[in-house]
Amino acid sequence: MFLVFGQWIAASQAHRRIRYALSTRAAYVAQSWWTHSLDSYPILPGTSIGLAKGRLADTVWFHTMTQKDSDGDRSTTRIGFENIADGDQVYGLLRSIQMGTA
């Protein structure tokens, strides 16, 4: 049952449970579900970043993670600030951090 409805429940609660922060060196994602976590992702000149424009909110990607499952298949997960209001501004900030002008 959780596999069917869990993703929609998690998405509807994400605005209460996830916080984003950006410094001049890294991006931070803090989550508080059953446990608390704080993940840090360095922003380097070679870091691949992207902007996905949405109808109501944007997503800025700044990290990718490739994993291999037990069958040997690879899957890529993108990590970023999801469903944010000012995606263009955050994307610009990330670009300035990459160029060293932030």
Task: List its traits.
2 helices, 102 residues, alpha+beta, PH-domain like, 28% helix, single chain, 3-stranded antiparallel β-sheet
Short précis:
It is built from 2 helices and 6 strands, in the order αββββββα. A 3-stranded antiparallel β-sheet has the order 1-2-3. Strands 4-5-6 form a 3-stranded antiparallel β-sheet.
Set out the fold topology.
Blueprint (H helix, E strand, L loop, with lengths): L1 H16 E5 L3 E7 L3 E7 L7 E3 L5 E11 L5 E11 L2 H13 L3
Antiparallel strand pairs: 1-2, 2-3, 4-5, 5-6
Question: Can you describe what's shown?
Answer:
- The structure is a single chain.
- This protein is an alpha+beta fold and 102 residues long.
- It has a single domain (2-99), classed as PH-domain like.
- It is built from 2 helices and 6 strands; from the N terminus they run αββββββα.
- It has helices spanning 2-17, 87-99, and strands at 18-22, 26-32, 36-42, 50-52, 58-68, 74-84.
- A 3-stranded antiparallel β-sheet has the order 1-2-3.
- Strand 5 (58-68) and strand 6 form a beta hairpin.
- The longest helix has 16 residues, at 2-17.
- 12% of the residues are buried.
- The mean pLDDT is 84.
> Any idea what the CATH architecture is?
Roll
Residue share in helices? Answer: 25-40%
Biggest sheet record: 3 strands, antiparallel
Averaged pLDDT: 84
* Tally of structural domains: 1
H/E topology pattern: HEEEEEEH
Here the CATH topology equals PH-domain like
The global form is: globular
